[in-house]
From TrEMBL:
Cofactor dependency: Fe(2+)
Any one GO molecular-function label of the UniProt entry: iron ion binding
The protein's name in its UniProt record: Phytanoyl-CoA dioxygenase
InterPro entries named among the record's database cross-references: Phytyl_CoA_dOase-like (IPR008775)
Naturally occurring in which organism (per UniProt): OM182 bacterium MED-G24
Signal peptide: none
Lineage of origin: Bacteria, Pseudomonadati, Pseudomonadota, Gammaproteobacteria, OMG group
Pfam family, one: PhyH
Length: 413
């Protein structure tokens, strides 16, 4: 397993054991709840979990007195859930089962990317008391459930394998429609509202201004590009916003390797994802990138022949560039405002641009993935008078070894 002791992989044996303990205690004083059964099966689980036919299954049976939680699938259960493992993992990591609006948005984003058939529920509803217990169980496990650590399998199921290859060749990649148009509108409105409150056109610390930014930053498809280029344990350098109107681009040709001596390292140290919250065209003033410029391992020179390309993509898409790629801000010739969120990550061995602000409530309403990005798994940050946190160091070494192996599989394919 590729988890810390207090974390679990979705539907692993450890996940099942913790679920059994939680539900047994939850139903211990629920003799008033009528008998029911529930069973779930999710296809195409990661091979390292060693499920039969790679189907992740479990079933729950409550006879009114005792509860059983076991491996296996019962198609005749009162409530049956069938879906895709990677798609369902998006929901399994969503904390907030007691909030119908929040969960509806999570389902919307999952279906927007994976399709309507990726998750289907039949039967029910359960007794209100049973529903409340399962909602608490869902959140209890969501706070502990990690991302699928198999990068090759995850990227294939997410449909971003080509993007990981593009990153190696071009230094950047685009995931079109990574979020739904509705979510893009929600993030845009939240960004404009936040900028208005602070009376500016750009701002750092956007992560701390609402749930929409927390969800955007941890978008699973985007995070697969982070893992591929920066490794596991990459930390949030900054989450910033920019609002701009018509006119010349204000950010000239540059790389994001400030104060880094040349030649640049032959591995990526930073990466930035720019989220399009409206359609990007040449007229809207998009980011321009120079394909393959990361291979120069230096910044641009005045006499360089620059052949950049504008990033045109629909609302809800993200362009991610890494490894010293040359880029600049294009001119905006159309009316209106371009509003963007910039998700900047650093390799885990580097410090962040924004000093870390650990918000316990934020960590409690999110899965472990956000904590990882905020340094919760950083063995250096956990240094005490007795020395380093060798448990976290060993964990991250094993996780990155597996990630690198699976990345090699992706690039060889």
């Amino acid at each position: 397993m590729y988890t810390l002791p207090h974390h679990v992989e979705f539907l692993s044996d450890e996940w099942l054991d913790q679920s059994r303990s939680f539900l047994t205690e939850g139903f211990r004083q629920a003799s008033h709840v009528g008998a029911f059964s529930l069973s779930e099966r999710f296809s195409d689980a990661p091979p390292h979990l060693s499920f039969e036919n790679n189907d992740a299954t479990w079933r729950v049976n409550w006879d009114g007195q005792t509860i059983s939680v076991e491996r296996g699938f019962d198609p005749k259960a009162d409530v049956v859930v069938i879906g895709d493992y990677q798609a369902t993992l998006m929901l399994a990591q969503t904390v907030g089962a007691g909030d119908p609006t929040l969960m509806a948005k999570a389902v919307r984003e999952m279906r927007s990317w994976f399709g309507d058939n990726a998750f289907n529920m039949q039967g029910g509803p359960l007794d209100a008391s049973a529903t409340a217990i399962f909602a608490s169980h869902h959140d209890h496990m969501a706070r502990r459930t990690v991302e699928n650590p198999d990068l090759a399998h995850r990227a294939q199921r997410q449909g971003v394998t080509q993007q990981l290859k593009d990153l190696e060749e071009n230094g950047f990649a685009v995931i079109e429609n990574a979020i739904s148009p509705e979510f893009a509108d929600e993030v845009r409105e939240a960004t404009i509202r936040t900028l208005g409150t602070h009376q500016g056109d750009s701002m750092q610390w956007m992560l701390y201004h609402g749930n929409a930014f927390e969800k955007l930053v941890m978008n699973p498809q985007f995070m697969s590009m982070i893992d591929s280029t920066l490794g596991r344990g990459a930390v949030i350098a900054s989450i910033s916003s920019i609002k701009r109107g018509p006119g010349k681009g204000l950010i000239k040709l540059h790389t994001d390797y400030s104060q880094v001596p040349e030649p640049y390292p032959d591995f990526s140290m930073t990466g930035v994802g720019v989220w399009a919250l409206e359609d990007w065209t040449v007229a809207s003033g998009p980011t321009w990138l120079v394909p393959g410029s990361h291979k120069m391992r230096r910044g641009p020179r005045p006499d360089d022949k620059i052949e950049g390309v504008p990033i045109e993509m629909p609302k809800g898409s993200v362009v991610y560039f890494q490894h010293g790629v040359w880029h600049w801000q294009g001119d905006r010739t159309e009316p209106g405002e371009r509003v963007t969120i910039h998700s900047h990550f650093n390799r885990g061995i580097l410090r962040s641009l924004e000093p870390k602000k650990v918000d316990i409530q934020m960590l409690n309403r999110n899965p472990p993935r956000l904590g990882e990005a905020l340094g919760e798994d950083d063995w250096f940050d956990r240094l005490t008078a007795d020395g380093r946190d060798y448990m976290r160091m060993t964990h991250m070494m094993n996780l990155n070894r597996f990630t690198n192996e699976q990345k090699a599989t992706v690039l060889a394919g």
